[in-house]
Amino acid sequence: MANVNKNLVMLKLLLFTFYGALGCVMVFLNIHMRFLGISMQEVTWINSALPLFALIGPPIVGMVADKLGHYRAITIICMLFAMFLHVGLLFVPSCKSTSAEDTPLSLHCSSNKATLEVESCLSTCSRPLPLMSNTFQVDNCRLVCEEQVTIREAGNETNFEGEAGKEDTSAQFFMLLQPAHGTPQYLPFDGEQQVTFRFNESVMPEEEMRREKEDEEEHKEEDASCRYSLQNFLYESASYTNLSCHTREPHCQIVCNVTKQGNDTQLLDTSSCCRVTLWVYFSLRALAEMFSSILVSLLEAVALTMVHQHNGDYGREKMFGLLAVALFTPLSGFLVDSKVGTFGIYSYAPVFYVFGTLMLITLVTTFALPIQVKIQRRSLLKNMAQLVRTAELSVLLLIMTILGTFWGYLITFVYLYLEDLKASKLLIGLTTSFSILPSVPFLYRSGVVVKYCGHHYLIMLAFVGYCVRFAGLSYITNPWWVALIDTLELFTLNLLNVSAATLAYKLAPKTFVATAQALVWVSHYNIGRCIGTFVGGHLLVKYGHRRVFQGASVMAATCAAIYLSLHQLINYCKAQRSAAPKPQPVRENGNIPNGRYTPLAVAEDERF
């Protein structure tokens, strides 16, 4: 085993704690959003907007750090902001409503009207929620008579004595559907039939209007159930304004079971009470993402500089950060499943406990880290223009953007996909371990791997890895298959990061290290992620997870083929242009004079 480089021990500890903190919280953030009641459409646009919001941060702070050289002070300030902002996400108020799967629904139909009753419509909101436009199936109808019904007619009160709790599932009745114009439709019903209807628009609960007139204390003691009048609905593509039921017993009503059809929309409209949750969460998350991106670009520049100063291996140092992610992410998932340290509605508190502890250790380590980075003396606005004018670096940024679109869709929606497959939080955390542990031996000798394979061929393998990975995800039904599929992250992310970072370091002037690393980071993790999340999220709503995964697999294979073809063509053209005719030895009387020879071609140190 190689001797430990003592000059890089503190760097190893810094990367271990920082990436361990960042990795364990990033995996669960989107799941936490859904736990708070934020809808899939809102998850899509938030994750699409976050990269744009964080786009400006890394390049500007990277240029300032290159100009001033105060890497330690800038890093510590950004670290404090990132820590407090991420922990603040735990205390965002929830607006989660009761889902259709665990909310009992029933139809109460009398001779005057019909109402859809939702057993719980208050949830975490302070008032009843509107019922969203949905399709409902009515079945298992029965005749129900109360113990005593009081009827008021023209000022007179008449008591009707019925059998207590009387229910008759065999009683026949008919439904009267009243259209806006035209003749009412009579629908015979024997209780065993199934009727499907749909609301044209969201419906406010009638219970809310009634309760406003009641005493506030009495309101608190009442059940949280709400009733929604069955008005303005569709039945067999025809529109109706009212529904009533008529039976042989005039003082009884029909009660039916109701089931919500489809999963495209939620049962109750939480938009009115989710606005505070949505905007508070977005504000904290956007700032937290920005400072996290700044920290990554700064620490990447520090790591690359220290590695070259002390003859280290960049991939080996990054390996310690990845090992921390593989360790602390499943630990966080296990703590969430075990409900260790949870209280009230804060079910994801253990994730933030682990994150905060590791960030505090990172902060202390930063004070002791010997940071030395070359300071540039040129105008801050000139270095980015100079970097972009570098042709090969511009191509690298474009490729990283394309790869970032694949990564953006995957990192945003794959954990929600696994949760839909009934994966535990421990398994979701273990996905990072499955993706990192196979990468460890390759990252330990990443310098040799990059030199042997070449930067561009490793980037091509990233496209191939995404092709296989998306195809595998589209066919699995058991979430544990992700253990095999995620091993491909060796190519799609880990070796890709090493290859892109070292190639950018080689192509950029040494005084622009932080700026070059920030541009690579922004291209992949900001611009690419934004495009992948926005486009993928809209395709997901329309086509579903599996079809989008299959389409992404085809796109990744196509990109790999195009990139390989262009790379070989460019290399061939370069070889043709640089090929010079071999010098011919001068002959004198048919003999080659002493000292005249043809020099051998010198091979390049690295493959590209």
Explain how this protein is built.
This protein has 608 residues and is α+β, with helices and mostly antiparallel strands. It has 19 helices and 14 strands. The protein has helices at residues 9-35, 40-53, 57-68, 71-88, 206-211, 216-221, 271-309, 314-338, 349-368, 380-388, 391-420, 425-436, 440-444, 446-453, 455-475, 482-485, 489-507, 513-543, 545-578; strands at 105-109, 114-118, 135-145, 148-153, 156-161, 166-168, 173-178, 185-189, 195-199, 226-229, 233-235, 238-240, 242-246, 253-261. The strands form three sheets. Strands 1, 2, 3, 6, 9, 10, 11, 12 and 14 form a nine-stranded antiparallel beta sheet that branches. The chain has a three-stranded antiparallel beta sheet with strand order 8-7-13, with no helix packed on it. A hairpin with a 4-residue loop joins strand 1 (105-109) and strand 2. 56% of the residues lie in helices and 12% in strands. The chain starts with 8 loop residues before the first helix and ends in a 30-residue tail after the last helix.
Query: What class would the helix/strand composition place it in?
Result: alpha+beta
State the end-to-end distance: 30 Å
Number of helices: 19
Tell me, rounded to a whole number, the average pLDDT.
76
Q: How many strand units?
A: 14
**Rg (CA only):** 33 Å
Q: How many strands, what sense, and barrel or not for the largest sheet?
A: 9 strands, antiparallel
Strand fraction equals 5-15%
Residue stretches low in confidence (pLDDT < 50, at least 5 long) are 148-165, 208-223, 375-380, 596-608
Helix content, binned percent: 55-70%
Shape: elongated
